[in-house]
Design goal:
This protein is mainly alpha-helical and 214 residues long.
């Protein structure tokens, strides 16, 4: 079932979507999103409380990434589908020669994006922004299967790692908040301004047109 679903997703490819997916899955592509997110948090909470939240998010990603790549992968030693040593790689569509590293359980893309969204969901009241971030995270996970570098179960494992990292980081954040400011923190609202939404929408449109420009 794992291999069947992966082959189905990987098989739904085209030259255009290959370009879009490669741009989408590249980790530095979303630096503008992270900068905008940090700006919105600092603007909404003030620099002191906002910085504490940003540190909490960063800690979540560090925990998720190190737990996934530094501990679980070496223990599981599960070959990526695209690894040359994996017979399944002969049946996959490889995009631009990209195969990833040797091991792929769990997916760190899934862990990091899930951790980010989960921490935001724990910290803030549910808003349209969190819904959009959830969609963004799911797209990131889909790109990893589209490229054939992760099995669906790698993605599920990554989600579990991300959720665990967010829970741990959020608990530490609450302890730090109480010690610095006294009292329990409230779940605030995070609502970026219209220009911010427009700017990010324009950036996404740019990514969709990028393969046509190359």
């Amino acid at each position: 079932m794992d291999e069947t679903l992966l082959l189905l997703i990987n098989g739904l490819h085209s030259e255009y979507w290959d370009g879009v997916v490669m741009a989408t899955t590249y980790r530095f592509t979303w630096i503008p999103l992270y900068v905008v997110m940090a700006y919105c948090i600092l603007r909404s909470e003030g620099w002191r409380k906002g910085l504490l939240t940003v540190i909490g998010i960063a800690l979540t990603i560090v925990i998720a990434d190190q737990l996934g790549a530094g501990i679980i992968r070496p223990l599981c030693e599960r070959l990526r589908p695209t690894a040359l040593a994996n017979p399944l790689s002969q049946h996959l569509h490889i995009v631009d020669g990209y195969r990833g590293g040797l091991y792929g359980m769990p997916s760190c893309h899934a862990a990091n994006t899930t951790g980010l969204v989960a921490f935001l969901a724990l910290r803030y009241r549910h808003t349209p922004l969190l819904l959009l971030m959830s969609v963004w995270a799911m797209i990131q996970m889909y790109t990893r299967m589209y490229l054939g570098v992760h099995y669906p179960t790698d993605i599920l494992a990554g989600i579990g790692v991300g959720l665990s990292a967010a829970l741990v980081s959020h608990c530490l954040w609450r302890v730090a908040y109480r010690r610095l400011y006294g009292g329990a923190p409230h779940r605030d609202s995070l609502s970026p301004s219209l220009p911010v939404f427009v700017a990010m929408a324009a950036y996404v449109v740019f990514l969709l047109f990028l393969p046509l420009l190359s």
